Amino acid sequence: MRKPPRKLSILAAVFVLLGAGSVMAQERALNRVVDGDFENGVVSLSLPAVSPFPVFSGGWASRGQRAPDILEGAAFEGIRSVRLVTRPQDTLQIIQDLPINSPAFGLRLAFLIEEGSQRVRLFGGWDRGEPDDGAALFEAQLSATGIVFTTPAGTWRISGDVSPYQWHTLTVIADPRRGTHNVWLDGRSVMSLPGVSARPPLTIVIGGDAGDSGSFRYDAIEVLSLVDLEMATIRDSVTMLDHPAQTAVLERLAAAGAALDRGAPTLALPELGVARNMLGTTSLATESVRLAIAELIELIEISGAPGEDREMAQYF
Disulfide-capable partner of 201 in 70, 113, 122, 223 (CB 3.0 to 4.6 Å)? Predict the structure, then answer.
C-alpha cells in the first residue's frame, strides 16, 4: 500500500478551523441520509441477497440472514444506535439510497468497534448485491488495528490503535476541484487521498460481506452535498459582516440556493457572481467571503448540481 499524500487543500484547512464534525452537525437539515441517528428505532425494509430494485423507502434497508439490532442507551448522540454483527458465513449490511446528485460530498459517521472489521462504502449506482455493481467510489474498512481507505486511485492505510468500545468519528470531504478526499478521524486531520470520481454517490452500504467478521455500532450517519455546506458557510459569514450590501448579498445567495435546489446550476452561477461583486474588497473579511464565493462557483462549474433526470437516466 502506498503512503498517503499529506497536502491539505484550502477547503480542508477551512474545515479544520471550523471543525468538520461541528459544521456537519449544525447542518443536519441538509443531511441526505434519512434516520441517520436511528432515533426512530427501526430498519424498515429487508432485502434479499440480490435485489433487482433500488431502495425507494426513504430510509434504511438491511441485507442479511439476521436483522440489525437497535440499541437504547448506548448511543453516540441521542438514545439509540445500531449494532451490526457479521460472521464469515453470511452478510449483514444496512443500505440507503442518497439523493445527492453531485460528486462533491461530505460523509460523517460515529462508530464503535466491539470486534473484527467492517466496511463503509459509497457506490455510484444502486447497489443490488450483484457482481457487476463494480467497485465502490469510496471505501473505509474499519478495525481496531487501523483503517484501510480505497478510492479509484488506490488503497491507503492508517495504522495505529482505534480503541475498541469507544466511540470514534470519521469525516470525509470529497472535493473534485482538487481531486481529493480529505479525511479526519476523531476531529483530527489524518490524510488527503486522490481519486474523487466524477459520479455522485447514490448508495451508502455499511457492514460486512460474506467472509467478513465483526461487531460494530454506528450512529450519527450524515452524507451532505459539499455545495450545500459551502453555501451555508458563506451565508453565515455574510450575516456577520458589517457591510452596506449585506441584505442584497443575502438575497442573491438565497436566489442561488433556490436555483440549486431546483437542479439549475446555470441559474445559480450568475447570482453568485453578482453577490461576490457586491461585496467589493473593503476589508480582509469581505475579501475572504469573496474568495469563498469564487471557490463555490468553481465547485459548481466542475461538479454541477444535476437534477433527477440525469440521475435516473443511467438506469433506464
Answer: 122
